[in-house]
Amino acid sequence: MSAADAARALFTERFGSAPAGTWSAPGRANLIGEHTDYNDGFVLPFAIEHRTHVALGPRADGLIRVASTAEDADVEVPLAELDAIFPARRDEIAFWARYPLGVAWALLRTPGATAPTGVDLAFASDVPVGAGLSSSAALEGATAVALAEAWALDADPVALARAGRTAENEAVGAPTGIMDQMASMLGRADAAIFLDCRSLETHVVDLGFARAALELVVVDTGVKHSHATGGYGERRAACERGAATMGVPALRDLTPADLDRARELMDDVTFRRVRHVVTENQRVIDTVRTLREAGPAAIGELLVASHASMRDDFEISVAELDTAVEAALSAGAIGARMTGGGFGGAAIALVDRDRVGAVTDAVTAAFAASRFAEPTIFTVTPSAGASRDV
Ligand code: GAF
């Protein structure tokens, strides 16, 4: 059964009627530009074909009720209480439900939103969870696009992405940037989204993978990570420390020419965090230019340099991700890097179509040789963003 059908079936099973409609939003892979979004920098993600679907129906009693095929228990809250729950009492809400309820809360705080009557939401997803492909942004995006229509909100895709980020930051407590939500809202088939995370201006960048007979291979290491705890927040704090030391609002305001001065002013760890962000911003710009001038087969070195910077300077890779990248490259991948926030999750590899089998076999063999759990390996296609399902 497709995830869209599963969402509809769950709605009928849990809520006893047919839904008014279904909406969906995709996960994303990030081609390049990691940990640059919350530094006001540049990113180049694309939406993938894996989506979270939500079936929605109105109700008349002011409650919001959420159900998921991945969860046994529904969660039900009066809409009028969301303001009291988030963020202070968020721990009272089941972890997964903080995402959709947090989006509802964020949308109701947008100017002009009037108190709606209530809503039932049933979710089903084929976005791998914890794989670094932003199942959370897919859940937020599906909720946002469905509620915006059901509640007749005057909210453009950027406003819906902002609501998703508010949910993630304040309702869930993960101090993330806005890349994933923007990619999930604005994705286009066969293209990546170049996003300036300061202005939130976007440009669609043609990827041309199909024309060049290239595939984007994802290696889900199975190593689970959470951005609500630990390393992600520490990296963000180091970046803010580095920007303050350099006297700039954000690391976006530095260029590689500033790095000599940065090295003199800060401790080695903070310096390396700063160097990753500054050089990664430059790599995003270089990747966009290379895609335009020379096509996707020419971006391999930039992907590899991005991975090395995250491994050595930002220190967010893990052995499984390094093994995936090295094995893919040794089997002939054009480029490879970890994607997403790090500390687990997935690596991506850009591969000639006729080498996908060889890369898959090489990564699988390298994991077995290192006694890592078997990875899940699949290809993804740059796809459209959030929408009402037809
Ligand atoms: C996670 C976050 F959610 C994004 O905002 C971004 O910071 C990414 O990690 C790292 O580039 O996906």
Please describe what this structure looks like.
The protein contains twelve helices and 13 strands. With 390 residues, it is α+β, with helices and mostly antiparallel strands. The chain folds into two domains: 203 residues, 2-Layer Sandwich (Ribosomal Protein S5, domain 2), CATH 3.30.230; 174 residues, GHMP kinase, C-terminal domain (Alpha-Beta Plaits, 2-Layer Sandwich). It has a six-stranded mixed β-sheet with strand order 5-4-6-3-1-13. The protein has a four-stranded antiparallel β-sheet with strand order 10-11-9-12. Helix 7 crosses helix 9. The longest helix is centred in the last third of the chain and has 27 residues. The radius of gyration is 21 Å and the shape is globular. The mean pLDDT is 96. The structure holds 2-deoxy-2-fluoro-alpha-D-galactopyranose (GAF). The site of 2-deoxy-2-fluoro-alpha-D-galactopyranose (GAF) has 12 residues, from helix 6. This is Galactokinase. Belongs to the GHMP kinase family. GalK subfamily. Keywords: ATP-binding, Carbohydrate metabolism, Galactose metabolism, Kinase, Nucleotide-binding, Transferase.
